Amino acid sequence: MVNIKRVRNLKKGRPGNGWVLYWMSRDQRVHDNWALSYAIEVAENEDRPIMVVFNLVEKFLGSTWRQYDFMIKGLRKVESGLAALNIPFMIVLGDPAINIPQFIKLHHISRLVIDFDPLKIKQQWQKEVIRQIDIPVDEVDAHNIVPCRIASDKEEYAASTFRPKITRLLPEFLDEFPPLVRQHESFNKHRINWEVVTITLQTDHSVRPVEWLTPGEKGARAVFDKFLENSMNVYAHKRNDPNEKHVSGLSPYLHFGHISAQRIALDVLKNLPRNEHTEAFLEELIVRRELSDNFCLYNHGYDNISSFRPWALKSLNDHQDDQRDYVYSVREFENALTHDPLWNAAQKQMVYTGTMPGYLRMYWAKKILEWSASPEEALHTAIKLNDRYQLDGRDPNGYTGCAWSIGGVHDRAWGERKIFGKIRYMNRKGCDRKFDTERYISRINTLVRNLSKSPSPQ
Ligand SMILES: Cc1cc2nc3c(=O)[nH]c(=O)nc-3n(C[C@H](O)[C@H](O)[C@H](O)COP(=O)(O)OP(=O)(O)OC[C@H]3O[C@@H](n4cnc5c(N)ncnc54)[C@H](O)[C@@H]3O)c2cc1C
Fold first, then answer.
1. How far, in Å, from the CA of 397 to the mean position of ligand 1?
2. Where in the chain is the domain with CATH 3.40.50.620?
């Protein structure tokens, strides 16, 4: 049974007499999905059939074909996974505020289940849909282990204030998922014409898809298994070395919901001894990741500098007129035209491969602050580039990571210095001490040269 605390009723409504509908959005998987499990449970209790719909929008927070390609390939696997359970899956294209109410009417939906997402655009879609319908609507947090609204009812100051809350609630919420039962209802087994979906979708094709990882639940599991085998036992010591690649690489899968963080945590705790490596990994996966959802849910300015704490805003403001040695435009940043080969290499890695090592993401964003005309412009540039090129972009982790680097969100005040004020500083020398930066630069430049030679799959 799904812990009812994971469920939040958004509308009482009057149940219709047809299907239970799960409007899948953030959590694009069949297994280990609390929203799907809850929808199935409701359908069984009320003896109704269940179906799942996904609404594809053509523009989403600066996404390009890179992210759409990964998502659509994952959704094709969701379709097969649901078909195996005898659950129909539909795709609708366009504005969810129009599509979902129409769909509910057309299919005589009795109840609507949606998955939780703290981003403003998702909350807005949900509000507009709910305003137009009369049936009961439940929201299920299928992304966080401890449901975001239960973990805390306010914006947390830092990991240190959030960690005790999460730790106290984990024994209740880190539970096993119920088995998925094949549904009785046999349905008209029409399959989605994915060619038509792909052709119809008018998205920005200027950023090419990535080919180094396989979308979907199986792809995610393979990456996780490889991490357990090769890197988990050195994670605490080697995760910050971009040449070693001893991190999980799971963030695109977590972002699109191809794997559940809860499954990852359960497997780690079941199969491995608790040591500095598992603790460090679970800190990132649970505390830091769920803290990002907390930030975006309770601070609606998460994508602009109004989300910075007063001490940080004041300090950045005090240093607004400091002389900058370099000031670059968004175009110059985007095209990796700074004076710093390390920054340029990190930028190129993101543009060409859709990812950047975690340690370098911090350096990358902090240098954007140092080389921009203002903190506002720096945050805007960082979010714009992050969302356009990172496969895992447009995620609460991204908004929080940029706000942490540029605005000290969840961080403390540090010694005052030029431009940064009291925001934590990072420099090239620090990177040189941490890892072989020349090796990284040369590796990325070779990779980019090779990728530039290969024909674009667009
Ligand atoms: C400027 C900046 C931008 C960022 N942009 C994104 C983004 O767009 N999308 C994104 O998912 N993450 C982002 N991060 C957070 C973090 O860098 C990535 O999640 C991590 O590098 C992904 O690699 P991994 O999956 O191998 O992580 P691992 O080290 O293997 O960690 C496992 C999981 O823990 C979570 N995690 C790890 N580090 C953090 C962190 N600092 N904050 C929150 N959760 C974390 C992620 O879900 C990650 O997949 C950003 C950080 C910064 C500083």
1. 6
2. 4-143
Considering only the top CATH level, what class is 4-143? alpha beta
Residue 285 CB less than 6 A away from ligand 1: yes
The pLDDT tens digits for 281-327 are 999 999 999 999 999 999 999 999 999 999 999 999 999 999 999 99
Fold of 305-450: DNA Cyclobutane Dipyrimidine Photolyase, subunit A; domain 3 (1.10.579)
Ligand 1 centroid to residue 357 C-alpha, Å: 9
Q: How far apart are CA 391 and CA 405, in angstroms?
A: 20
Starting at the edge strand found earlier in the chain, the sheet holding 50-56 runs 7-11, 137-140, 111-115, 20-24, 50-56, 89-93
Question: Is any ligand 1 atom within 6 A of the Cβ of residue 289?
Answer: yes
Which amino acid, one-letter code, is at 190?
A: H
Place of tokens 């990991």: 159
Tell me if 28 CB under 6 Å of ligand 1: no
State in Å: Cα 256 to ligand 1 middle.
Answer: 14
Any idea which architecture 150-178+215-298 has in CATH?
Alpha Horseshoe (1.25)
Q: Which residue from 22, 40, 13 is spatially nearest to 107, judged by alpha carbons?
A: 22
Q: How far is the CA of 401 from the centre of ligand 1 (A)?
A: 8
Q: Where in the chain is the domain with CATH 1.25.40.80?
A: 150-178+215-298
Model pTM greater than 0.85? yes
Please give the number of the atom of ligand 1 that sits closest to the Cα of 292: 43
- Which residues touch 423 (CB under 8 Å, ≥6 apart)? 312, 315, 316, 366, 369, 406, 407, 408, 411, 414
